[in-house]
Specification:
The chain is of the alpha/beta class. It contains 15 helices and 17 strands. It has helices at 33-47, 72-82, 95-103, 119-122, 126-137, 156-160, 171-184, 200-210, 224-230, 245-258, 299-310, 331-342, 352-360, 376-382, 388-394, and strands at 13-17, 24-25, 28-29, 51-55, 86-88, 109-111, 142-145, 167-169, 191-195, 216-219, 261-263, 267-271, 280-284, 293-297, 314-318, 346-350, 370-371. The protein is elongated, with a radius of gyration of 22 Å. The structure holds adenosine-5'-diphosphate (ADP) and magnesium ion. The site of magnesium ion (MG) has 4 residues, from helix 13.
Length: 395
């Protein structure tokens, strides 16, 4: 992949695909990690006299203009972090975008409105997507792919635009790929992966692939209950994906066959309801009451997981161990994060919610070797898939 150092950007309009998909509460940004991660590349280009046009998506407006998904608050925050004003276009490729792009002087920065307001961005139809990509590409002379969190999407701004403009990979993309390479090419052992989060189906592909690579696989979070159920336990009202039970049974057998140590929760915090202040108690993972749901791993599991991480040389962690958004159920996630911080291993955190959890819990970001901005993108890379956005930058 070419890097931005190889581009002669002075006085030229450079379209930067960034990942600015941050969590919002109304129009308040609750975690600006992704904006901060996108600053170095934008700053570098602007500093070299480029006319920088940033494009990004926010949430899932599904091809329609939806004010609650406007990037306007992000433009304001980006401006603060850059220490220079960011012009905001109120559309993606319309009159406003064109006027803003044409009005930029050397070293100035603009942000376009949410890419996903345009149906062409995510269209599965190559022609529809291509037509939108033509318009987007026409705003600039060069393209920089720095939205690592979106490189697993075959979207116009990720995949089609770099085919239309001279391009390079931004610094964030380069850094993310370097780390993922370390995890896939001869990782130092023991190699331990911790998976959690909400949906097993999101992570099945990666589990299948990792079973051939890791020494230990620790499973917590909402996905653990499908594993516990697959082993014959009742899980009450906990998150459960019935349709994945067979596949999960297959994983358990496969782990056994390959000598991969599969570690599941031994106790959980069982709550009366999904709520911040829900009544709850610690129960054995084999004895979850029928009317309760597990919202975090229990204290014995936290110790068990910390022990399994203590001697690791490489760790990849994706997915919170519990509903960390509720203080009462954030202890498991905190314990795993702390075990990574305490470890001498090469530690990588992947996943939007996992990274947000680290910051929300007030843990030091520099306690980890790397915190990835990409959830799905990192997982698909680890699955061994070709990521459209990276492939497009290779050409
Ligand atoms: P990431 O974004 O890091 O990849 P996911 O999106 O897969 O993580 O999952 C994050 C979500 O999983 C969080 O919102 C968290 O509340 C939820 N979660 C974790 N454990 C549980 C649980 N036991 N029950 C319900 N939801 C859970
Ligand atoms: Mg998530």
């Amino acid at each position: 992949m070419r890097t931005i150092d190889s581009l002669d950007v002075k006085g030229r309009r450079v379209l930067v695909r960034a990942d600015l998909n941050v969590p919002l509460d109304g129009d308040t940004i609750t975690d600006d990690g992704r904006i901060r991660a996108s600053v170095p590349t934008i700053s570098d280009l602007a500093g070299r006299g480029a006319r920088v046009i940033v494009c990004a998506h926010l949430g899932r407006p599904k091809g329609k203009v939806a004010p609650e998904f406007s990037l306007a608050p992000v433009a304001a925050r980006l401006g603060e972090l850059l220490g220079r004003p960011v012009a905001f276009a109120s559309d993606v490729v319309g009159d406003s975008a064109r006027a803003v792009a044409e009005g930029l002087a050397d070293g100035e920065v603009a942000l376009l409105e949410n890419l996903r307001f345009e149906p062409g961005e995510e269209s599965k139809d190559d022609e529809t997507r291509g037509a939108f990509a033509d318009k987007l590409a026409s705003l600039a002379e060069l393209y920089v792919g720095d939205g690592f969190g979106a490189v697993h999407r075959k979207h116009a701004s990720v995949y089609d635009v770099p085919k239309r403009l001279p391009h390079a990979a931004g610094g964030l993309t380069v850094a993310e790929v370097e780390v993922l390479k370390k995890l896939t090419e001869e990782p130092a052992r023991p190699y331990v992966v911790v998976l959690g989060g909400a949906k097993v189906s999101d992570k099945l592909g990666v589990i299948a692939n990792l079973l051939g690579k890791v020494d230990r696989l620790l499973i917590g979070g909402g996905m653990a209950y499908t594993f516990l159920k697959a082993q014959g336990n009742e899980v009450g009202r906990s998150l459960l994906q019935e349709d994945q039970l067979d596949q999960v049974r297959g994983f358990i057998a496969e782990a056994d066959k390959r000598g991969v140590e599969l570690v599941l929760p031994v106790d959980v915090l069982a709550a009366t309801e999904f709520a911040e202040d829900a009544e709850h108690e610690v129960v054995e993972a084999t004895a979850i009451p029928a009317d309760r749901e597990g919202l975090d791993i229990g204290p014995r599991t936290r110790e068990l997981f910390a022990g399994k991480l203590a001697d690791a040389a490489t760790v990849f962690w994706n997915g919170p161990m519990g509903v960390f958004e509720f203080d009462a159920f954030s202890g498991g996630t905190r314990a795993v994060a702390q075990a990574l911080i305490d470890s001498d291993a090469f530690t990588v955190v992947g996943g939007g919610d996992s990274a947000a959890a680290v910051r929300k819990l007030g843990l030091p970001e520099d306690g980890f070797s790397h915190i990835s901005t990409g959830g799905g993108a990192s997982l698909e890379y680890l699955e061994g898939k070709t990521l459209p956005g990276l492939a497009a930058l290779e050409d």
